[in-house]
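Figure 2 data, in text form.
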Amino acid sequence: MYEQSKKRLLKNTLMLFVRQLLCVLVGFYTTRIVLRQLGVDDFGIYNLVYGLVAMFEVVTGSIPVAISRFITYELGRENLSQVQKILSSSISIEIALGVVLAFAAAVSGAWFIESHMNIAPDKVEAAKIVLMFACASFALRLLIIPLDSLFIAYERMSFYAMKGVFDAFVKLAVALCLLLPIAEKLTLYAMLNTLAVLTTLLICAGYVKIKLPFYKLRPSFDVSIIKDMGAFTGWAFVGNGATIIRDQGLNIMLNLFFGSAVNAARAVSMQVSTVITTFVRNLLVSAQPQITKLYADNNITQMHSVIFVSSKFSFFLTSLAAFPVILQADYLLKIWLVNYPPHAPAFVVLFVLAALIDVVSWPFTIGLFAEGNIKTYEVALFALNVSNLPVSLCALYCGLPPESVYVVHVSIMALVAYCRIRLSAKAYGIDARKYLKNVVSRMVSIVFFALFIPAVLTHFSGFEGVGRFLFCTTLVEVAALTCIWTIGLTPSERKYVACKIAQKCAFVFSK
């Protein structure tokens, strides 16, 4: 049973890995086309207006976690009637939130555009039209959340992955439409993006109707379910709120002590870190339904095993992207931005280290969400994240450089990881010593052989510029893959991966 779960986890993770890789590559190319066709001013207006609407996602940010947890938990108990009630109640919640928040965003956004937004007078009406489409897209995306939660709970990762790739290519098609000789490209782009979201919603609803016909996509209110989900969402909001307070507080603090140039360096570093974190957390989508179902089925031993495997593979996949960035941050920033802000390379390294710690310990958070009693965890998370501010302030008053702020951040992320493991031991009996022995020890070995040794060899190699980058990246990737295969994987995992590679090669060469 455990081997089947592990194989399914590996299969789903690899599927989502391919999906994320395609989405990132297509996304970068799409942004390039859009920027070129809209121009700097219209591209800035579009992002600012959509950013105004995105601010309301603070209210809805913790709802997807709650919906996914409750649906998956009841599915693990094979209580399909309760799953239907949760699905219907979730749809009702999202409709209500969509209407209220979209209206609030439209009213406040229109006021901001007219009174505070610094744009050319002839672009004000276009910005208002973009705002309306942004509000519509926001409301439609909320309706997709319960359906995504259903797909993840049923582990329909092939459809979930294809939907993500479809979204990416539809956005590319929308961007290519801007090549047409049309005068008002800004409003066209906003309208087509809204139609793209609507298309995705209809495809998801159609899939449920065809493949999961026993579920009805009708709104209804179940007071007890909404009350339970509200309590869960409320505590999750505490943790999310702490992250916002931490990030914006540190940003303001850096501005007060060092000026806007350091804020620019932080923004660049955040972008790199967000790509890596989002990439790996999306891969962990495949682990979430298994962990929650196993807890609901009271199969705690196997749940622990899935958490260990998820943590380990999160580290493997993140390290392949993170290690070259850590060692070659300066050169990569030169390629990407040519002239990058001061302190940016150090910030990138520190942000990537924090992201690495976060994604490795995230499977324990999934376990805590599955257990359901998240009050202690969210309060601890709030306290640790907010403590970044006074500690960083003391460091800056002592005359330390801006990098000290994110050295503190990395240290506190390590404490957050420790907190997740300790609370997991209390909540569902995870064996911390076993985790250190079977998982962390392998991670430490890989860091030594695939990060520290290549760093030393690169330093004494004598290469410069492109040669140094290629030498270092090749050395890191070869060392990382070799260590993952020989040290990181167990014999059964190596056998499964080798079998899958052989099958794919046979399929390709048989064509």
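Caption note: The first helix runs from residue 2 to 54.
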